[in-house]
Amino acid sequence: METVTTDREACWLTTESSKPRTEKLLLSLVGDAPMFATIRRLCQNHAAKFFVETAITDRDTGKSNVIIGTWTSLGKESTPNLGSEGYTIFSEEGRLWIVAEEERGLLYGFYHFLKEIQLGTPLLEISAQEKPANVFRMINHWDNMDGSVERGYAGRSLFFEGGSFTKDEDCMRSYAELLSSVGINALTINNVNVHEQESALITNRWLPEVAWLAKLFQEYGLTLFLSINYASPITIGGLDTADPLETSVADWWERQVERIYGSIPSFGGFVVKADSEHRPGPFSYGRTHADGANMLAKALKPYGGHLFWRCFVYDCLQDWRDRSTDRARAAYDHFAPLDGAFADNVILQIKSGPMDFQVREAVSPLIGALKQTKHVIELQITQEYTGQQIDVCYLPPQWKEILDFDTHANGKDTTVADLVSGRANGGFGQGMTAVVNTGRDENWTGHSFAQANLYGYGQLAWNPKRCLHAIAEEWADRTYPYLPKNVRKTIVSIQECSWIVYESYTSPLGIGWMVNPGHHYGPNVNGYEFSPWGTYHFSDRNGLGVDRTRKGSNYVSQYAEPVGSRYENLQTCPDELLLFFHHVPYTHVLTSGKTVIQHIYDSHFDGVEQVKAFIAAWESHKQELPEALYQHVRVKFDAQLANAVEWRDQVNTYYYRMSGIEDKHGRTIYR
């Protein structure tokens, strides 16, 4: 059996096919596109592995079997409406053609070709015509210059260590390939919680290092952004204010932006977290978020830069005794009234749910409320609240559910996917961004199966209508081609149910937040219940859940109709979100016919059994698995089972003690 280790070669882009091809690859790159240097490198590093011989020429000699070029360089009539990143692949006269309007399209077309070659598709049967649904397909790193990663579960930072840049070119190129191969086209490299060291990334001290990285990423179609400290005019500029309406502040930013673009012409712009979780912002000066964002946007505008302004703004010093304040309302209350007040290069970054990336929460009503402001949806690839890359939790099913959600913002069938892509709102939707899950661990993502979340994000950002099963199968077939098909099938089946399994042994019916404070791994039912963060489940002897109806916080009114009324009504509110919207008795009967308390007991027992089933399935393939891969996943599963058992016992015991109601199946619940 082939020996495979869980190193950086064990991912979808770099794993070799289990069926080597027998033909030669004679590739012609026609034209003078700078991206051809990248395509040549990709061909030599990856495509060449699949062919008995590979040759690359800079023109069409008539002997090549694969031709790459723009419609103009090839003298062919273009395919309309594919844009700067779309591509067409077709066979003609016994040769394969990869053609696009612009060079980014050629890059994505070559990745598609590489995927099909890896999957064993015959050369002349490869065919495609694609363009991305979303303008921005972005990831946010939460990396710090000391090498740490906030909410990072895959080792230390790829970019930083010891207060400086790592400058590992081989690693950076491998990473750029990894991202661009799934269509990601933009990234930040530093934490949105910008500390003192990272504040200086926009100064002459670090701009040469940033420029080196930006140039490298640009070769792979990736635009680099930086997260900035809103108070930089004070912390690094020597001013005594960061008031956005002060001329001295605006002038300081304009000079700083001029220096940045002088060093980095391809620079994308800034990402800002302001007035959130103790971060500075315009509220300190009695200004609005539009005031703060527009000042920065004006500085970026002459260079084509964009400002991503996060909408994660809420009262994090809430008095838990105050039942009138609902954190879920905050993003809408802050930003919906400002619709139309932002500059056209400001992009509001809206978390997918109104709270904070819980395993289950409602879709943010701010998505759909903005009619005249550019925006993106923000997801979380890194598994902060969903197992931290210890527990397997495949997140594309969660994201697909969010993207398919009908907001009714512009009438029936106004889905989140159509809004964030701009199709349903005149172009104000600008795409997707996500907090990424990569680090310096040998397999990039801590848990090898967690690679599928990054892969799946890229696939859904490119095409939100892609079949989830096809994505999971494709990832497994590309990542583990050396494994027997039945083993890959088991991996896919585990992945596809893992989100629901994780939900079943953690937080019931949309309640959330029952985690250990600070690091957020493992159960602590009341960990946040009396905290200032606004993260409450209000469990008492009679019932549990948050009343967000019109009689409660009136959060439901932020949704378009009939969505708000559906959530308002106990009879029509989906069971999986019941406790997100309602405080109900333990004896309330769900549509399943179970009471709430019995559902809590059953789901937590069932979740543990499902994790045991994961382990049994993995054990059944032990003889078919490379030892390193077997051990890596088995260790993770053992840790997941211990976590699931702890969740089951703590949650069930807590609610038995609270309700006094027995489990009708008589299973062990600790008194």
Supply the helix-strand structural class.
alpha/beta
- CATH names the topology of the largest domain as TIM Barrel
CATH architecture of the largest domain: Alpha-Beta Barrel
The general outline is: globular
Number of helices: 19
Beginning-to-end CA distance, first to last residue: 51 Å
The largest sheet, given as strand count, sense and whether it forms a barrel, is: 8 strands, parallel, barrel
**CATH H level, superfamily name of the largest domain:** Glycosidases
Quick one: how many beta strands? 18
Pfam family, one: Glyco_hydro_67N
GO cellular component, one term: extracellular region
Catalytic activity: Hydrolysis of (1->2)-alpha-D-(4-O-methyl)glucuronosyl links in the main chain of hardwood xylans
Keywords: Carbohydrate metabolism, Glycosidase, Hydrolase, Polysaccharide degradation, Xylan degradation
Polypeptide structure, described:
There is one protein chain. The chain is α/β, with parallel strands linked by helices and 671 residues long. The protein has 3 domains: 24-130, Chitobiase, domain 2, CATH 3.30.379; 136-479, Glycosidases (TIM Barrel, Alpha-Beta Barrel); 483-546 and 583-671, Alpha-d-glucuronidase, C-terminal Domain (Alpha-Beta Complex). The protein contains 19 helices and 18 strands. The strands form 4 sheets. Strands 7-10-11-12-13-14-15-16 form an 8-stranded parallel barrel. Helix 10 links the parallel strand 13 and strand 14. Helix 1 runs parallel beside helix 3, helix 13 (451-462) crosses helix 14 and helix 14 (468-479) crosses helix 15. The longest helix has 33 residues, at 627-659. The chain is globular and about 80 Å long.
